Amino acid sequence: MVNALTTLVQSLGIAYASGISPYATVALAGIASRMGWIDALPGALGAVSHPAVIVLASVLTVIEFLATLIPGVASLWETVHTAIRPPAAAALAVLTAWHGDPALVTAAALLGGTLGFATHTTKLGLRYTIDTSPEPITNGAANIAELSAVAAIAYAVWNHPYITLGIALAVLVLLMLLVRSLWKAAKRALRGIRGSAETPAT
Questions:
Q1: Mean pLDDT in runs of 10 for the chain (202 residues)?
Q2: How far is residue 194's CA from residue 186's CA, in Å, rounded to a whole number?
Q3: What's the CA gap between 150 and 162, in Å, rounded?
Q4: Quick one: which of 30, 108, 175, 190 could link to 54 by a disulfide (CB 3.0–4.6 Å)?
Q5: In this structure, is the dihedral angle defined by the CA atoms of residues 98, 47, 66 and 158, taken in order, positive or negative?
């Protein structure tokens, strides 16, 4: 029971990271496994340590990093990935729990997909806000922060799964609240601009 719960928590951790970037998650977990920085990955997730998978995921990570540096393109990229990240999160969660009880695998798929969607939509809201800036520096800083978060989760979730997931969920809640505040502020500013434009000159 304890091992099954630990596996489920680990599957949710990898799904969380995938909601940020499935490409970076696969690349970093694969590299960490291949370099011996972490123990053997559970279930069928060991497939991510195959050299071809690492290379492909790394190339896609670089493409994603460069694409999200460009204002406008970044928002489009994030929007398109609404159809990619949640399913990828569910798939990685399933791979993590693959050799477990069918009920565990099912739970990992459902919860992993849901958590991946929550992480992605929160990131999407932040990215829309950041992308209003016409320069790539803010986007670049966001990219580095996201890669750092993925790297931390991809490494720590195998050694300290409960602590890692707990911290990640707390950060997610805080980011959700931040996104909500930013969108409310943006709406107020937009109403103010519209009000000023509609006020007749005296």
A1: 86 96 97 92 94 98 95 92 97 94 95 96 90 82 94 93 93 89 70 60 52
A2: 12
A3: 16
A4: 30
A5: positive
Report the first-to-last Cα separation within the chain, whole angstroms. 74
In terms of residue numbers, what domain contains 102?
2-198
Q: Rounded distance, CA 29 to CA 38, Å?
A: 9
Q: Phi, psi (5° rounding) for residue 99?
A: -90, 10
Q: Give me 153's structure tokens.
A: 């989760």
Cβ pair 95, 12 in contact under 8 A:
no
Burial class (CB in 10 A: 0-12, 13-18, 19+), 71: middle
Total domain count, the chain: 1
pTM of the entire structure? 0.88
